[in-house]
Write a structure and sequence with these properties.
Layout (H helix, E strand, L loop, with lengths): L1 H20 L1 H14 L4 H17 L15 H38 L2 E4 L12 H10 L7 E8 L4 E7 L7 E7 L11 E4 L16 H8 L11 E4 L5 E11 L5 E11 L5 E4 L11 H9 L7 H5 L5 E3 L12 E5 L2 E10 L6 E8 L10 E10 L2 H11 L5 H4 L3 E7 L4 E8 L2 E9 L8 E5 L2 E5 L20 H4 L3 H20 L1
Parallel strand pairs: 1-14
Antiparallel strand pairs: 2-3, 3-4, 4-5, 6-7, 7-8, 8-9, 10-12, 11-12, 12-13, 13-14, 15-16, 16-17, 17-18, 18-19
Helix pairs in contact: 2-6, 3-4
C-alpha cells in the first residue's frame, strides 16, 4: 500500500517540479509572487509571532509532574489572551501595509515625474484612431486572418495592424500598413506575410505562444499585450515588437523597461535590443500609464488615499476610444501624450503629460506634466460647440457625421475631425480654451470654410423692429465673417424653397 503511494507522490512531485521549472510558468510565478507576495509579509510575521507566543506561554514541564496539572486553566487563559492580542495587532499592521503599499509604489514612479508651467511641445496632426481602424479593415483585400490589434507609429504617420492566422496552433498571418490622411480615405494598404516557420503569437497555445518563446531565451521579463505592435521592414519581412518590462525592488516592487524583443516573421527567431532604430515606440505604453497615474501621490498620503491629489484622464465620449497615451510626433520623435483633468467632478483640461516613446536604457523615461496657462474646455464641450457652430453642414443628419478625437497640437491648440466611421471630411483647428473672436475654424482639405463663435453669457441689447438700424453684432463682423453669414443665409433660403 505504501509503495504505490510513494511512487504516486514522487511522480506528482516530479510533474510539479517540471512545471515549476518551465521558463514561461516560472517567470509568471515570480512576477505574481514579487508584485503581490510582499503584501503578505506581515501575514507571515503574524504567523511567526503567534507560533513564538504559543511556545512561550504553552504548557511546559514533565508529563509526570507531581501535584500540578500541566494544563492549568490560568496559564491557558493567559496564552489565549496573548495570542488574540498578537493576532489583532498583526491584523491591523497588515491592513496598514496594504493601504500604504500602493502609495509607496506611486511614490517610486513619481521620482520620474516633473511638473512645469513651461509650454507643452508642438505635436503633429494625425487621423483619428477609430476611423483609421475602420479603414484598415476595409483595405485588407483578400486577407483571411483576424485583426489582433491596430497601432499608430507617430514618426512615420502610419497605422499598422496585426492579423492572426485562424486556427488553434497557429501564429500571425500578416501585417497591414496603412497611411491614413487627416482628411479623406486611405488609398489601399500594403501587407507583408508571415512564413509557416514563424508560427507563434501573443496568447498562442503551447509551443505557439510568443511569450513562452521569449521566456525561454530571457527569463524574469514580461510584457503587456497592448504594448505589442508590428511593422514591415525594408525587405518586406514582418517584425513583431514586444516592449519588455522587468521588476525592481523588494519591499516595494515596481516595473522598469527592459528593452524589446523582436520576432522575425520569416525565420521565427527572436532578437533582443534596446529599441534603437525601431520605426515605432520601444518604451512600454503600460509603464508610461503607471507613471502618469503616480501623480495621485504627489501631495501626500492622505490626498492619495482620498483621491484628492494629482490628475486623471478625461472621461469624455468623443475620446472614449483613445483618451490616454496618444501617440503623437514632436520634433521628429514619437511621444505619448495625455490630456489631464483635476481629480473630482471638474471636466476642464488643465494639464498635458508628455513622455518619450523611445527606449530609455533600463530606466524610467522622464514624464513631464505641463500645466496649461489657460484651462481647456472639456473635449465633449469642444465637440458640442463644433456641432453648434457648423450646424449648417447637411452631413450631420444625412450621413451621420460626428466629431472624432479632440487631440492636442500644442499646449494651446487642438485638432478635431468631422466625418463618419469610415472617412473624415473636415478638420477643425482651434484654441482649447475656446477663447478669442475665432475660437476654432473649419477646413475642408486646405480650404477654410469658416470659423465658429462662442455664445456670450450676456444677451445683446434688443433693437426696435423697423427702426432702420443695423444691429451692433452685425456691424462688428469682419468682412470674411459677413460673407460667411451671407453664404449660410442663402443656403438656408435655398433649403426652404426646396421643401
Amino acid at each position: 500500500m505504501r509503495k504505490p503511494l510513494l511512487v504516486g507522490g514522487l511522480i506528482t512531485a516530479a510533474l510539479l517540479a517540471a512545471g515549476f521549472w518551465e521558463a514561461y510558468y516560472l517567470t509568471n510565478i515570480v512576477w505574481v509572487v514579487r508584485k503581490a507576495g510582499v503584501i503578505w509579509i506581515p501575514v507571515l510575521l503574524i504567523l511567526a509571532a503567534l507560533f513564538v507566543v504559543a511556545l512561550l506561554l504553552g504548557p511546559s514541564g514533565s508529563a509526570k509532574k507531581s501535584g500540578r496539572d500541566r494544563h492549568d486553566s490560568r496559564t491557558g487563559s493567559r496564552a489565549v489572551g496573548w495570542l488574540a492580542l498578537t493576532g489583532l495587532a498583526g491584523g491591523l499592521a497588515t491592513i496598514a501595509w496594504w493601504f500604504a503599499y500602493g502609495y509607496l509604489q506611486d511614490r517610486d514612479y513619481l521620482s520620474s515625474v516633473t511638473v512645469t508651467t513651461a509650454p507643452a511641445p508642438q505635436f503633429g496632426e494625425r487621423a483619428p484612431y477609430t476611423v483609421a481602424r475602420a479603414q484598415v479593415r476595409a483595405n485588407l483585400g483578400d486577407a483571411t486572418g483576424n485583426v489582433a490589434d491596430t497601432s499608430y507609429d507617430p514618426v512615420s504617420d502610419r497605422y499598422t495592424t496585426l492579423l492572426e492566422r485562424r486556427g488553434a496552433f497557429t501564429g500571425y498571418e500578416s501585417v497591414a500598413t496603412l497611411k491614413v490622411p487627416v482628411i479623406g480615405a486611405a488609398n489601399g494598404s500594403s501587407r507583408c506575410a508571415f512564413s509557416r516557420t514563424a508560427d507563434a503569437r501573443v496568447g498562442g497555445w503551447l509551443g505557439h505562444n510568443l511569450g513562452r518563446k521569449i521566456a525561454q531565451e530571457r527569463r524574469w521579463v514580461s510584457f503587456d499585450d497592448k504594448d505589442v505592435y508590428a511593422y514591415c521592414d525594408s525587405g518586406n519581412v514582418p517584425k513583431v515588437v514586444v516592449p519588455l518590462k522587468k521588476l525592481q525592488g523588494f519591499f516595494v516592487v515596481t516595473e522598469r523597461p527592459a528593452g524589446v524583443a523582436i520576432y522575425d516573421g520569416k525565420t521565427g527567431e527572436i532578437t533582443f535590443s534596446d529599441g534603437a532604430g525601431l520605426p515605432g515606440p520601444a518604451y512600454p505604453m503600460s509603464l508610461a500609464a503607471s507613471q502618469r497615474e503616480s501623480t495621485h501621490a504627489m501631495s501626500g498620503y492622505w490626498d492619495w488615499l482620498w483621491q484628492r491629489g494629482g490628475w486623471e484622464t478625461d472621461d469624455s465620449r468623443v475620446n472614449a476610444e483613445n483618451n490616454t497615451e496618444f501617440g503623437l510626433a514632436s520634433g521628429g520623435k514619437g511621444l505619448y501624450s495625455t490630456s489631464l483633468t483635476p481629480r473630482g467632478s471638474a471636466t476642464a483640461i488643465t494639464a498635458i503629460s508628455v513622455i518619450p516613446a523611445h527606449g530609455s536604457g533600463g530606466k524610467l523615461a522622464p514624464l513631464t506634466v505641463h500645466r496649461l496657462a489657460k484651462p481647456w474646455k472639456s473635449p465633449d464641450a469642444i465637440a458640442q460647440n463644433i456641432r453648434s457652430s457648423y450646424g449648417d453642414l447637411q452631413q450631420w443628419a444625412t450621413r451621420g457625421f460626428e466629431v472624432f478625437e479632440v487631440t492636442p497640437t500644442s499646449g494651446e491648440t487642438f485638432l478635431a475631425t468631422i466625418g463618419h466611421g469610415q472617412v473624415t471630411k473636415y478638420v477643425v483647428r482651434g484654441s482649447g480654451s475656446l477663447a478669442g473672436a475665432e475660437p476654432h475654424c473649419l477646413y475642408e482639405a486646405a480650404a477654410k470654410r469658416g470659423c465658429g463663435r462662442v455664445e456670450s453669457a450676456t444677451e445683446p441689447a434688443p433693437t426696435t423692429p423697423g427702426d432702420g438700424k443695423i444691429p451692433a453684432d452685425i456691424r462688428n463682423l469682419k468682412d470674411e465673417e459677413l460673407l460667411e453669414l451671407q453664404r449660410r443665409l442663402q443656403q438656408e433660403i435655398a433649403n426652404r424653397l426646396r421643401r
